[in-house]
Design brief:
The chain is built from 2 helices and 7 strands; from the N terminus they run βββαββαββ. By secondary structure, the protein is mainly β. It has one domain: OB fold (Dihydrolipoamide Acetyltransferase, E2P). β6 and β7 form a beta hairpin.
C-alpha cells in the first residue's frame, strides 16, 4: 500500500455562463476525449467574467464558420485552436434539463460580432 496525493479537481474552470445573448471572446480551446467521444472545452470571456462551454463537434459548425475556420468539405473544418484565441462572436446561452433531467448549459445562435476584437473591453 502506498500513500497517494491525487488532485481530483477538474482542470478547467467550468464556471457557469450567464443566460442571454452577449459577445464572447475565445481565451482557449481544449480537445478532450471521453472514450470514443470527442468534445471541446471553450474557455470564454464575457462582460461579467470568464467561463467554460463544452461543445461536441456536431454543435460547432456554425461557430467555426463564424470564426472564419476553413470548411475543407461539407461539415469538415481545418482549424488551429491557437489561431482563434482572441476572436469574438455573439451567441445565446441558456440552461435547461436534457432528456434525462440533467441540467445542461447550451450555447446557440452563433453570429459574427459587431464588436471588433481590439474593441472588446474584456
Amino acid at each position: 500500500m502506498s500513500r497517494e496525493y491525487t488532485n481530483c479537481n477538474p482542470n478547467y474552470k467550468n464556471e457557469p455562463l450567464p443566460d442571454g445573448r452577449r459577445t464572447w471572446k475565445v481565451l482557449s480551446v481544449r480537445k478532450y476525449m471521453k472514450k470514443e467521444t470527442e468534445m471541446f472545452f471553450w474557455e470564454l470571456a464575457y462582460d461579467g467574467g470568464e467561463g467554460t462551454q463544452l461543445l461536441l463537434p456536431s454543435m460547432m459548425k456554425e461557430l467555426l464558420t463564424v470564426l472564419g475556420c476553413a470548411e475543407t468539405e461539407p461539415g469538415v473544418f481545418d482549424w488551429e485552436t491557437e489561431l482563434i484565441e482572441g476572436k469574438v462572436f455573439d451567441a445565446t446561452v441558456s440552461h435547461g434539463p436534457d432528456k434525462s433531467g440533467v441540467m445542461r448549459q447550451n450555447m446557440t445562435d452563433f453570429a459574427a460580432s459587431a464588436t471588433k476584437e481590439e474593441d472588446v473591453p474584456f
